[in-house]
Amino acid sequence: MAIYAGEPLNILHTIGLDHLYPIIRCEIKFDQQLDRGRFSDALTAVAKVVPEILCKYQLATNSWETVTDDVDDLIHYNISRPDVDAKSFDLMNEPQLRIYWNTVNNQDHLIFYVSHILTDGAGCKQLLYLLAKAYSVGLQSIAKVTNRQDVDWLMTLIKQRKQATKRGTDHPTTPLVLPELVETTPVTSLVGSVKLKAQTVSQLVSAAHQKNVTLNDIFMAAFGRTIQRYGDAPTISLACPTDMRQFIAQPQPNTVRVANHTSRYNLSVESELDDPFEKLVTQVHQGMAINKANHQCFDSISDLLEKYEKYPLDKLQQIVEDNYHVREIAYTNFGIIDHKQLVFDGAAITDVTMTGSFRRAPMFQIAVATFNNQTSLSFNMDGTKTEYDFGMALARNMADLIDIFALQAK
Fold this sequence. Notes:
InterPro entries: Alcohol_O-acetyltransferase (IPR052058), CAT-like_dom_sf (IPR023213), Condensation_dom (IPR001242). This protein folds into two domains: 3-147, 2-Layer Sandwich (Chloramphenicol Acetyltransferase), CATH 3.30.559.10; 152-406, Nonribosomal peptide synthetase, condensation domain (Chloramphenicol Acetyltransferase), CATH 3.30.559. Helix content is 32%, strand content 26%. It has helices at residues 36-49, 82-85, 121-136, 152-160, 198-211, 215-231, 277-293, 299-307, 313-323, 385-406; strands at 3-5, 23-30, 55-58, 63-66, 75-77, 97-104, 107-115, 146-147, 188-195, 235-243, 255-256, 262-270, 329-337, 349-355, 359-360, 364-371, 374-383.
């Protein structure tokens, strides 16, 4: 069996495994059935580009070891409760990709579970685009594609920049929290999602341009204010993941980066609960602008990269805990899922939902993603029906604030 060396940032998502298993979940619904043989051939072609999807992860050596050479081992057909079944997903002993394939009324419904140890959200999207291209255009269309996971370019950038913030900024003094509901009903794995109307998204883009803010500023502010209403914190502190691929000076052709290349911007703004929402959006924008100008995102991963070759695993994981720890309340934005690249010939995609790991309520993460001009606010939860309903209320509350801001477009 083949063994592949890992990269330093694979370690980012190896802490807190007992309460937050590191996966990215992407659910795709089609208007009809896919060709299973064609799909299997396409997945085989993808595995030649990203062989780690056929590997288990060896934490002690930060490496990947092949456990199968048959991509059909990755596909689980006709599982009635896939998210419950996925609780058995073991990245330390199984392949890093699991696909649930259900067919309802002659329409295929696929759920991809992708290892977050292997890759981040941007890399997950690249993996899906590869699969779609091999399926739609042909296997030869990705035959010359190379996957790169190296971080040499990032280490060079970090060495060129003096750290602008003090170590430990990833642990806010007054973190956002949600109340714990007193419940005795069964806990199960649930996925919730609220879709913004297409008209809202269009108006929101206009409003953002007019106010000179980003869509991400608005989403973060809406999420922060929503959580603040239940925790009454005077400070809204959020970590905002960012894709560091943007700093690669000259991306190479025929190259993908199915890898962990994400770091964080840490934001804290003082905001009273009755302050106007537009004021909070401006505060978030100003704070993020300063963070971006200072490349503050490098702070969360610089220690790990600098000490990777010198320190044992336990100390590296402590560095991660100090600088990249799991927050009770979390935000992520997967950005745009390109509907021109995520195409499976012959079967139109009717819906895409992309989320992160399952969290036990009252832990909560909102995941923002946009596919074909439709933006979703989604979450994964291990919780009761009541806790799930509360999560849906939070997502709708966030959507309401976004709607109100969008209406300001002239």
